[in-house]
Design goal:
The chain contains 2 helices and 8 strands. By secondary structure, it is of the alpha+beta class. The strands form 2 sheets. It has a 5-stranded mixed beta barrel. The termini are far apart.
Length: 191
């Protein structure tokens, strides 16, 4: 009889462990995968500016600004950002999550000349902001693409199921002046 109680107890423990494993595999793992697939960048309102990120890109306000980089900041959460000092104004440039920036291998020390194309806005703090669509590092002629033509963040994956560009994530052939060379503007996938 004692042996029967012991085997029932063991059976119950095994079922409990199986239930916990089932829960982990079928509920928590998919949740983690969805967060990874979403680019690990939840929609947020940046407190200092009131700008929505990453979804605050407005195709109606897209413009190009050229200047020099200063005050580069790469936070653990939120967008990589830096100041862009043009001849007329200073912009806070909002780029992408740090992991995407690092994957692109971008390097912009203070004083680097760049050209940025993106959605311009005025923050609630009275400062000018630009959410980057693409960036050209003038000294190296390196072009980096962060958003599609309509402003969709490339780090979230393409709506068509592909990510990156012809020469790696976020790059495309032709630079900013070559945007009209491909059918939809910027290259949207690997060839």
């Amino acid at each position: 009889m004692n042996r029967l109680k012991h085997s029932n107890y063991f059976f119950l423990q095994t079922r409990a462990v199986s239930a916990v494993l089932f829960f982990l595999v079928f509920f928590l793992v998919p949740l983690f995968i969805v967060q990874q697939a979403d680019g690990e960048e939840p929609e947020q309102v940046l407190p200092e500016s009131g700008i929505h990120y990453p979804g605050g890109f407005d195709p109606n306000t897209v413009g190009t600004v050229e200047g020099r980089v200063s005050e580069y900041h790469q936070p653990k959460r939120g967008p990589v950002r830096f100041q862009l000092e043009s001849r007329r104004d200073t912009y806070t440039v909002l780029v992408s999550p740090a992991w995407y920036w690092n994957d692109l291998g971008a390097a912009i020390p203070a004083g680097t000349g760049i050209r940025v194309r993106g959605s311009k806005s005025l923050g609630k703090d009275g400062k000018l902001y630009i959410i980057v669509q693409e960036m050209n590092i003038l000294s190296s002629e390196q072009s980096l693409v962060f958003r599609s033509k309509d402003g969709f963040p490339l780090w979230k994956g393409s709506r068509r199921g592909v990510t990156g560009g012809h020469r790696g994530y976020g790059s495309y052939q032709g630079g900013m002046s070559g945007m009209s060379r491909s059918k939809g503007g910027m290259s949207r996938g690997r060839r």
